[in-house]
Amino acid sequence: MESTDIDIGDLTPVQQAALEQYTAVTGQDVEAAIPLLQRAQWNTQIAITRFFDGEPEVDPVQEALSAAAPQDTRRQETLAESLQFSRHRSRIPPAPRIVPPPNPELNYRPGFPFNIILAPFSLASYILTRVFRIFAPLIPFLPTLLARLKSQDSTRVSNRRSLKPRDTAARFIREFEEQYGSNQLPFRELGYAHSLDEAKRDLKYLLVVILSPEHDDNDLYVQETLLAPEVIAFVQNKDSNIILWGGSIQDSEAYQVATAFNVTKFPYAALIASTPNSSSSSSFATSGTGMGIIAPLSGLLPPAEFLSKIRRAMDSHMPEINRLRSEQAERNATRSIREQQDSAYDRSLAKDRERAKQKREEEEKRKQEEESERKAEEQREQAAHKSEGWKMWRAVRIKPEPSTSDQNAVRVSLRLPDGSRAMRKFEGSAEVEEIYAFVECAELLDSAVLSKEIAKPEGYDHQYPFKLVSPMPRTVYDINSQGTIREVIGRSANLIVEPIDVDDEDDDDV
After folding, report:
1. How far apart (Å, rounded) are the C-alpha atoms in residues 417 and 495?
2. What is the percent of the chain with per-residue pLDDT over 70, rounded to a whole number?
3. pLDDT tens-place string over residues 257-308
4. Is residue 378 part of a domain?
5. Segment holding 293, helix H or strand E
6. Number of structural domains in the chain
7. Among 335, 361, 379, where does a domain finish?
8. 249 is in which domain, residue-wise?
9. Same domain, 3 and 152
10. Rg, Å, the chain Cα set
11. Are 122 and 64 in contact (CB under 8 A)?
12. How far apart are CA 293 and CA 184, in angstroms?
């Protein structure tokens, strides 16, 4: 038995109440109860279950607690670092969740009459676009306007069929491999919204790549930057925790993402992660927001610079990611402990219900047996009462002994079960049942209470608990023997009254 040095006075009121409840149910000593309650985290239901069922080899509660305390990697910040980090936090632009329509339709293309009517406007738009492209370096806002016009124009004249997000991602990957050959870039074959949700749920980084096939730097960007061995190795490394999603500006989903991100220069990439200003609450995992662009990467970048910006953003954001992972681990551990407690409580409750059910069944069985015994006793009493009533009724109707002058009389000597003998004459014309009735009612023949008014019990069939046997040669005179006493026995006979078990006789008859 374990011993403990803990004083009961040192326990909290909650622990004292748990100890009192536990000892009241189990009857265990306090010295042995306290260590068991400590191992059960002072959960009374778990402790009671372990007392009756035994403790498991591996304690799930201790496992959950050990997993609930990950190494605290959160850095200790100074006041200046906190203020600087807060300013950096406020500059992180949000990454909205873009969900295309569930049933995308084909892009609307006007008919031939409308094309003729809209031809002058299309020509004017084309000329203005060319003019803006020439004067774009001189005016700051023209590149943004030109990019929007170009995106709208490419969307308007594109013959690409709109697909669901998953099918759009699969088409982008297929076309990317057809144009640039087989590669090891792990593009996710999911829509942007699903990729964003996965990164938020697993606390990973989402690297979004949006390409514009019509851009002059697109092919060079893909071949020298995206397909660079160091970039591929970095994205494939599991320690980087990066989910890669790509799209073409010609597709509706990628165009919506570029518009939401305010993209003004292609090719474009962005590193997205959980932002501190919206993910600190416990509802982060289910929140619809909480992702921000921590590293926008616009334009043609060498592989080294591309990776340098990504790593720098990840390093600066790592403390927040570690904090969120620690909070997530704590929530998972708390949920695991709660599930273990609920499971132990359910098992204990199920066993209590089973014990109560068995107790009810045993009580019902006992009551049924008592009821059956009571009914059987009542039946025996009723049978005995009817048997006495029948004997009194039959004793009155036994014919008197014939006179000595009756030549047809039959003399019968009876040896009774107690060893005594009885001598009597019977009318020769009477049936054998008359002798049986005489033996059965012999004690009542001289009774003064006999009266002709005694009625035969209704529904009662009397069975004689004996049989008449002639010893030499042995002959059994059955009560149902055909004929009169004179015809069956003769002028005289010595008969033995042999007791029989009525139940055994019935079984033999069956």
Report:
1. 11
2. 77
3. 998 898 888 899 999 998 765 443 333 333 334 888 998 999 999 999 999 9
4. no
5. strand 291-298
6. 3
7. 335
8. 80-102+111-335
9. no
10. 53
11. no
12. 25
